[in-house]
Amino acid sequence: NLAGFKGPFRPTQLDEASFGYFSYPVADVPAVLNRYDNALVFLDTQIGRIVDTLRDSGELDDTLFVVTSDHGEMFDGELRVTHGRSLEEVEARVPLFLRLPGKLLPGDEDIPVSHLDILPTMLDLLGLPPHPSFQGASFLNPAEHRRNRVGIFATMQGARSIDALICWPWKFWRDVLEETVGF
Fold this sequence. Notes:
Blueprint: H1 29-57, E1 65-68, E2 73-75, E3 81-83, H2 89-92, E4 96-99, H3 118-125, H4 142-148, E5 152-156, E6 162-167, E7 170-175, E8 180-182
Antiparallel strand pairs: 1-4, 2-3, 5-6, 6-7, 7-8
């Protein structure tokens, strides 16, 4: 809840009668983009507050940070406007940020991982074994993760029902309701 947070980006006014996250008029895209960007500013501010509190208490360098998202948004050049309704890259690829001083060096890795891999990775960072029932695997060693990864399964259920298997750089998907498939 942004609870009165205004944010720097304008306009943000939408026609509430015609707006819904699953469908809205293309004319509302600028306001939706600004609301999204304002939400990111709000989130960044809240993370900053946590960092400041941990720094002030001397616990910042002993804290494992993990920041990710459940899905992206469909703000692409074709002005398709949707919210969590596809497994296309703009919605399926999400940020994943980990920070633990002394254990992780700053850097970027461009390897596909699943949210199922996050908890095993956290335990690996902390020197703890994964639970035998975990389906994911630690990605601390990207080369090993690439070698051992068979594929990543993704699914979306709700307004649509789509399943995908990602064997990077390939993705096979099947829309169950529309009975279509694609690569």
